[in-house]
Amino acid sequence: MSSNGSNKQSDVKFDGVSMAYGAHQVLQRVCFTAPAGKITVLFGPSGVGKTTCLRLIAGFERPLEGTVSLADTIVSSPDFRMPPRDRRIGFCFQNPALWPALNVRKHLEIVMKKHDDSSESKKRQIDELLDIFGLTPAMTNYPDQLSGGEQKRLEFARALAMNPDILLLDEPLASVEGLLREALMRLTKLCRLRGMTVLSVTHQLEEAFSIADHMIILHGGRALRSGSPHEIFHAPGNRRVAELMGYRNFFHPDSNSRTIQTLFGCWPHPEAAQVGWLTILPDDLRAEECETGEGRVDTCYFAGRYFHCRIAMRESIIEATSDHFLSKGTRVNLRALNTPVLLGEE
Asked: What's the number of domains the chain is made of?
């Protein structure tokens, strides 16, 4: 799709940002940078301040402490707030904020009136957006005649029609409509082609991995970790981030100067590493029947590619997998299929 104007690549920087609603502290001296021209996902459970970050970037809120900067320009601080209309930001809300008196096509036409393109160029771009997001059959419908997924797709299309420098997405896959995931993939592809900076909020790990170039992990009002999805998944750094990445088995390893001993093997102790925890995914730990095994099966159920097991072993419950069903009480040993991840003390 042709772009109706060039996008200024803008990074987004939080420097010591704190925010509260009444007595409820939402953000505590948060620092992070969302790189220009990339898709950054703010990831974490509900209630950790992800949407508040978007509202601060958009200019709907003012921080109690710290600064928010766009392209190295401070746009929000405790005593200053650039108006939202001056920030060249598009915002897709979790609950679409559409204009009830305008049909689908008019939603796109009205935001493109500000562009300098010719009438024919604008018409072509609107037709392309309607086609890309599967809205052509509904282009004369009004918001109350659209499904929840169609409303969300219209908001995606309208955001692109605005051609902002920065696009904010609040839980873009909140709707269960099947076409919405495909629409999000198309949206992020177009944003990358335009060099647009995108910040998206989600608590769903699969969604985050599917679109993110960069991730920022939020928990307890703080930014715990940032980096590419691959970096964070394979080196979460501490137990809290590892739990958010889907790790379930955590051990305080018995260690000496040369090796780290575990219930399922031993590994060389990395030099100069302070190991507080060791973790391994259930997918990377295999339960194998053994008459003298230390573990006993507590539960076992079919999980698609394998059977998922909970194993009682040395006063711990360990989650592992098996290639066949194991009945309750079966004795097993555990075998690691991959090297465990070492974590520092929190």
From this structure: 2
**Amino acid present at 216:** I
How far apart (Å, rounded) are the C-alpha atoms in residues 93 and 97?
A: 7
Q: Are 43 and 97 in contact (CB under 8 A)?
A: no
**284 contacts 337 by C-beta, under 8 angstroms:** yes
- Please identify, among 192, 220, 239, the residue that sits at the C-terminal boundary of a domain: 239
Classify residue 3: in a domain, yes or no: no
pTM above 0.70, yes or no: yes
pLDDT tens figures, 11-69: 999 999 999 999 999 999 999 999 999 999 999 999 899 999 999 999 999 999 999 99
Residues 6+ apart with CB under 8 A from 35: 11, 197, 213, 214
Residue 186 and residue 230 share a domain: yes
Nearest CA among 97, 88, 62, 90 for reference residue 76: 62
| Residues 233, 285 within the same domain | no
